[in-house]
């Protein structure tokens, strides 16, 4: 069975980025992103009420890492490592089936600059090479064309369309599921 037993949080680097652990110093930026309707347009989650809610979320991310349930990174530019610009990470790790769901979001000031592409590639490589995942899945809102295109660019294949499977804000919403199988398996 798959296990995630890291002695310390894995910090990852790309040409332009550092992917690091969440910190309470990220709370204001994370709050701003999770209450920005441009960022959250296709992320069907309740908006945080205040900074305390965000600090609770950060604590859950960090505890999730310690418990081996998830691995969520903050994205920062190497030239400004204190300023969070986005997130990428694995959620809902299914140990028995060597699967995890990947998710990501980015501040609008950094859209269309290849940042998510760069961060996603690094996270996928880490998931397959270090975590030994067999499959990475992604669940997107059917209206999110940008996310769909990024997933396809990285080799993900649409596996399912679930009709009205998710209830949010008084509506039943459709979900698209994408999957990527470890090419080394």
UniProtKB/TrEMBL annotation:
InterPro entries, per this entry? Acyl_CoA_acyltransferase, GNAT_dom, N-acetyltransferase
A Gene Ontology molecular function term for this protein is: acyltransferase activity, transferring groups other than amino-acyl groups
User: Matching PROSITE patterns, A to Z?
Assistant: GNAT
Q: Please spell out the taxonomic lineage of the organism that makes this protein.
A: Bacteria, Pseudomonadati, Bacteroidota, Sphingobacteriia, Sphingobacteriales
Entry's SUPFAM superfamilies? Acyl-CoA N-acyltransferases (Nat)
Entry keywords, A to Z: Transferase
- Alphabetized CDD domains for the sequence: NAT_SF (cd04301)
- Species name for this entry? Pedobacter petrophilus
Annotated ranges, domain N-acetyltransferase:
17-174
Q: What is this protein called?
A: GNAT family N-acetyltransferase
Reading the lineage from the top rank, the first entry is Bacteria
Q: Which Pfam families match?
A: Acetyltransf_3
